[in-house]
Amino acid sequence: MVELLKWTAIGSSLRRLDGVAKVRGTARYAFDQQVENPTYLYPVQSTIALGKVSKMDTGRAEGVNGVIAVLSHLNAPKLEQTDDAELAVLQGTHIGFRGQFIAAVLAETPEIARHAASLVAVEYQIAEHDAAFRAEHPGLYAPEQVNGDFDTDTTEEDVESALEASAVVIDQIYTTPAEHNNPMEPHATVAQWHNGELTLYDSTQGVHPVRQSIAPMFGLVPEAVRVIAPHVGGGFGSKGLPHAHVVLAALAAQCSGGRPVKFALARQQMFSLSGYRTPTIQHVRLGAGKDGRLVAISQDAVSQTSRIKEFAEQTAVPARMMYSSPNRRTTHRLVPLDVAVPSWMRGPGECPGMFGPEVAMDELAEACGLDPIELRVRNEPDRDPDSGKPFSSRHLLECFRTGAERFGWGRRSSQPRARLKDGWWVGLGVASATYPFMRNPGNAARISFQEDGSYTVQIGAADLGTGAWTVLTQIAADALHVSPDQVHLEIGDTSLPVATVAGGSSGTASWGGTIIAAAQAFRREHGANPAPGAQTQAEAPEDPDAERYAMHSFGAQFAETRVHADTGEVRVSRMLGVFSAGRIINPRTARSQFIGGMTMGIGMAFHEDGVMDPRFGMIVNHDLADYHIPTNADITDVDAIWLEETDHRAGPLGARGIGEIGIVGAAAAIANATYNATGLRVRTLPLTPDKFLF
Question: Structural domains in the chain?
């Protein structure tokens, strides 16, 4: 167990230190970076889903006044490493998905580049593609592992026999659609070469991971690539690893006569080039006694991947540890398609994977004549059912008890379709939430003492809008026994000590623990009265408890929905999330993260649906006019609270991650509430009005 510091700054609602700059517009994002004499890039994308470029005529584009160069597979510089087909841009004629980069125009202005790109004439050798996602796909296969290095399948005891012998069985199919990351700041990169070294101003969740990925592609040592990202306008996972636009910008900068290249994806381009959440088909079976105690849990998950690059969503992993059952089975299968590459999206695995089981638990509660919260009480495990390890902290039932009292759960009718108010059917629903705690190794921090009595704290972390600038300053202040205004934090640059990606809700714990270790090392080396210029760099020690305990955050999501009796229109009138996430570093930024996740959960429940036209391999609603996300009118009374606790096994901060758990369970709670309101059980997201027309 790690000894915790005495906190002063931590736990206070310090205002965002970068807030004023963002409001005033002085916080520079990737495309805002001031570089000398820039050029601008606009891509040419494939209009077929599978085949080859057989002919390309760039003459008209090259003849446009202001065009500097037109790049294609015919003249683009060759990459040193091309094993990642998503990133190996302009290296050949093969086309693996509609929207793939096949050429690019460099010009003096963005407008000229876009116009010239429209003049590039392309002829194709078209192959028959397959973009239809279905569970019975003949190419269905089991990946070697799923995201997070989890086992593809798990089986504990005899699930089939247990299901056959169960007094109550729920056996249903649940589906979630493709969902697309749409951060406010689009993916953007500014690239410049100088004396054989590459500088990238990139909108990324991890400057050091970008360096590690890009350097070998250009035959460089990592130190020859500098990545800078002081401010990032959202990511939700889509900026957690580099995509093809980063490589394209760097390639183009080799052909720009030494001038920097600016490239920002248009909103429509992001739907095929920045990753997305794969659709899922989940076959969930629950077997229980009449008392509701589970004897069997089975979840078979199917998702899609691109043929050119595998991504396996860990959809069924949460079912392995959520509830107690002597017989458990989970499987993952992939459908390989000629589509864009899926990737991380907020709460990958847990978010879609909890939808099916949590709706199934609601169905089981009704079948057993139990309150949905009571059902979860009866199936609460005392240890992690998957690993057998004790939980470092598990307060799920306390989340339910706290939320039930605050939300007025006792007013819920046990009979669906029992409350009609002003033409709207009203119902209450609930679901569990969980997300694993991760504290990544391999981080380092540097601390130096200045003549004015302040400390400079440096770590190559990234703030994608979550509040890292603020909370890391608070952590450093307490670790150094000074006030936050005596700490000058520097992040978002590979010239700073190495830091892992802002992903998996791991950033604050990973970087914060490293800063604490560096502060302790600084005190040991320089004492309480350091001389100006004193400096120390250190890494966080290994956490011995990481292998001894199962570490997860938990939550209870409550929702009240209203479904219009005539039109089927669905609204969330109230929503409450109660979370157990260890120590909360900054209540102000934490609440923002929880509510942000819940808001995305409302979007998942009602709006988000990337509609694939399999004839063309194209997402047809590829802009924010047709791909709907929640707006102010959709969010009425949404609140988030948390338990006051400290997880003493989760590193020196006693804190676990909070960025993603807010979305997990939200859609299931809303779906369960719509059933309680209408008596119509909808197992397919999104919950559109047509599904509630009686």
Answer: 19-28+443-541 (3.30.365.10), 33-128+184-234+240-273 (3.90.1170.50), 145-179+277-437+548-692 (3.30.365.10)
Would you give the end-to-end CA distance of the chain in angstroms?
57
The catalytically annotated residue of 358, 363, 608, 660 is: 660
CA nearest to 505, candidates 548, 551, 544? 551
Asked if 153 and 332 touch (Cβ cutoff 8 Å), the reply is yes
pLDDT value, residue 5: 61
Preceding peptide of 260 cis, ω within 30°: no
How far is CA 675 from each of CA 389, 418, 419, 425, 608, rounded to the nearest angstrom?
36, 11, 12, 10, 20
Q: How many helices (H) and strands (E) does the chain have?
A: 15, 28
Quick: pLDDT tens for 7-32: 789 999 999 999 999 999 999 999 99
Active site residue 660: yes
Query: Could you give the C-alpha distances from 219 to 78, 101, 360, in angstroms and in order?
Result: 10, 22, 51
The answer to whether residue 694 scores a pLDDT higher than 90 is: no
Backbone angles phi, psi at 671, to 5 degrees: -60, -40
Inform me whether the pLDDT recorded for 2 exceeds 50. Answer: no
- The angle at the Cα of 486, spanning 465 to 7, to the nearest 5 degrees, equals 75
pLDDT in tens, 47-58: 999 999 999 999
- Please name every residue paired with 420 in a beta bridge, in sequence order, or none if there are none: 425
